[in-house]
């Protein structure tokens, strides 16, 4: 039984530059053809991490911000996958830095959630909204704090003049609530040291301290009693 021939979109996902470029030479209309996920070649190339292929598609004048069936752009996909050089290229070419998927997820939210510090830095350099929220009201800081991405939390806190450190999600939780609930001790301490409010109550009337382990609660209380 012969192996099924891969579609050009599958080849782009694989990062197969030679095969994709040859097919484009034969049929330039493939540049803007959509697959079953409503994705163009540039979506899959961005996911693949093949900078050469993405650059080639851009040179052929592929759309920079096409939306797939979840309204995700190549920039969102590259940011989620951790492909910093591709993120930089797309931003240089004018990609919409604050585009959100149908779930409200942005490139910065994905990068903060997955711990991609270099990408977070690049996105903010290009005007990403540091307080952007998804459909559940979760901001990049909510994500980084709950996941335990300490370097991301530190980086976001450097922007204290614009960062909403006590922003609430749809459940009334602040980033500190989530850090406490997940027992992210270093992140919780850092948030408190930078002004996160230990007294705020979520929709269940619980403060961050109510969600802490006894050890973390003791550590946080020592910070506010200094």
Describe it for me?
The chain is mainly α and 226 residues long. The protein has 2 domains: 1-128, Serine Threonine Protein Phosphatase 5, Tetratricopeptide repeat (Alpha Horseshoe); 130-226, Alpha Horseshoe (Serine Threonine Protein Phosphatase 5, Tetratricopeptide repeat), CATH 1.25.40.20. The chain is built from 13 helices and no strands. α1 (8-14) packs parallel to α3, α3 (41-48) runs antiparallel to α4 and α12 packs parallel to α13 (214-224). It is elongated and about 70 Å long. The termini are far apart. The relative contact order is 0.08. The mean pLDDT is 96.
Spell out the blueprint of helices and strands:
Elements: H1 8-14, H2 17-26, H3 41-48, H4 51-59, H5 74-81, H6 84-92, H7 107-114, H8 117-125, H9 140-147, H10 150-157, H11 175-181, H12 185-193, H13 214-224
Q: Would you identify the regions where 5 or more consecutive residues have pLDDT less than 50?
A: none
Q: Provide the CATH architecture of the largest domain.
A: Alpha Horseshoe
Reported for the largest beta sheet, the result is: none
Helix coverage percent: 40-55%
Overall CATH class of the largest domain: Mainly Alpha
Short description:
Helix content is 49%, strand content 0%. With 226 residues, the chain is mostly helical.
List keywords for this structure.
226 residues, mainly alpha, Serine Threonine Protein Phosphatase 5, Tetratricopeptide repeat, 2 domains, 0% strand
């Amino acid at each position: 039984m012969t192996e099924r021939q891969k579609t050009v979109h599958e080849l782009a996902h694989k990062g197969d530059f030679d095969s994709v470029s040859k097919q484009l030479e034969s049929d330039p209309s493939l540049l803007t053809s959509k697959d079953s996920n409503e994705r163009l070649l540039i979506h899959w190339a961005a996911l693949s991490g093949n900078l050469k292929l993405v650059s080639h598609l851009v040179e052929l004048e592929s759309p920079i911000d096409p939306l797939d069936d979840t309204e995700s752009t190549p920039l969102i996909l590259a940011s989620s996958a951790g492909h910093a050089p591709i993120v930089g290229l797309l931003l240089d070419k004018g990609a919409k830095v604050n585009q959100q998927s149908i779930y409200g997820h942005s490139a910065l939210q994905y990068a903060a959630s997955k711990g991609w510090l270099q990408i977070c830095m690049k996105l903010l350099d290009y005007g990403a909204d540091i307080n952007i929220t998804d459909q559940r009201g979760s901001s990049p800081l909510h994500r980084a704090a709950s996941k335990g991405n300490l370097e991301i939390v530190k980086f976001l806190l450097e922007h204290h003049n614009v960062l909403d450190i006590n922003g609430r999600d749809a459940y009334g939780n602040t980033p500190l609530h989530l850090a406490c609930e997940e027992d992210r001790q270093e992140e919780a301490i850092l948030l408190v040291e930078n002004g996160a409010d230990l007294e705020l109550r979520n929709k269940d009337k619980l403060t961050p301290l109510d969600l802490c382990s006894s050890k973390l609660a003791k550590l946080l209380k020592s910070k506010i009693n200094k």
